[in-house]
Amino acid sequence: MELFSLRALADWALPPAGPLLILLLGLLLIRYRLGRWLTVAGGILLYAFSIPLVSHALIAPLQSPFEPPDEGALEAAEAIVVLGAGYRSGAVEFGGETVNDLALVRLRYAAALHHRTGLPVIATGGAAEDREPESRWMAETLEEWGVKAVLQETRARDTRENARYSAELLYEQDAQTILLVTHAHHLVRAGAAFEQAGLKVIPAPTGAFVPSTTGVSLGMLRPQANAMRTSWLAMHEYLGILWYRWQYGLRPVQPAP
Questions:
Q1: What residues contact residue 62 under an 8 Å CB cut-off, 6+ apart?
Q2: Measured between alpha carbons, how far is 126 from 132 in angstroms, rounded to an integer?
Q3: Which residue from 16, 113, 117, 168 has the highest number of Cβ atoms inside 10 Å of its Cβ?
Q4: 110 lies in a domain?
């Protein structure tokens, strides 16, 4: 099965689609004991993935090992690499297309690190053949925030290719130690990919998803769209980690002490 077919299959397995399919299958088989069990299971999963108590419990183990780099780490770095996160189409106020909200979080932190360190920034993100590469819009946004020298990596279609093609650019710049800017929950997989490409990774996490309150409360048990999104991001990353380990033999990146 081709990679993109596997991705499509994974998308159907992730919440809310996966639990909803289980629920619908259960309703079709409701006359049977299995159907009733599937209906209950699908409903419970839909509810669980939609509440902050569960969504943050899912994503916390991915992002908790990583903290912003200290001054010593910043001094050791030779370049900043920021990963793309996707497009926002229909952005007529920006000419029709720009980066999405997740990418903006990463780009803002990359710009902040650039202003603190003066290091060059590599924006990595490609596109399908009929679209402009994401790195173009990333570079445009970085320049709006005062980052002048942005190197664009335009070929990557996934995290592993982000690492592979960025490494080629970095070798041309005689740089090996990088500040890797991406969402905190993405660093386990992204860091491993960049290390396998031969680079020394200093994790630079941003955009951690944290609950507004701690402990169990009515708010933490109330279904919310943001919680479902956080659950989707967490489960997507768990599947991605498993896939990269199985397909490429990648092991998690170790956060800096």
A1: 184, 185, 186, 187, 188, 234, 237, 238
A2: 8
A3: 113
A4: yes
Please give the residue range of the domain that contains residue 155. 67-208
- Write the pLDDT tens digit of every residue in 142-159: 999 999 889 999 999 999
Q: How many CB atoms lie within 10 A of CB 36?
A: 14
Residue that the structure tokens 């200093």 belong to: 202
Residues 199 and 210 sit within 8 Å (Cβ to Cβ): no
Residue 202's CATH number? 3.40.50.620
Q: Give this prediction's pTM.
A: 0.93
Q: Which residue from 16, 141, 51 is spatially nearest to 91, judged by alpha carbons?
A: 141
Q: Is 82 left (phi over 0), alpha (psi -120 to 50) or beta?
A: beta
Tokens 């309703």 label which residue? 27
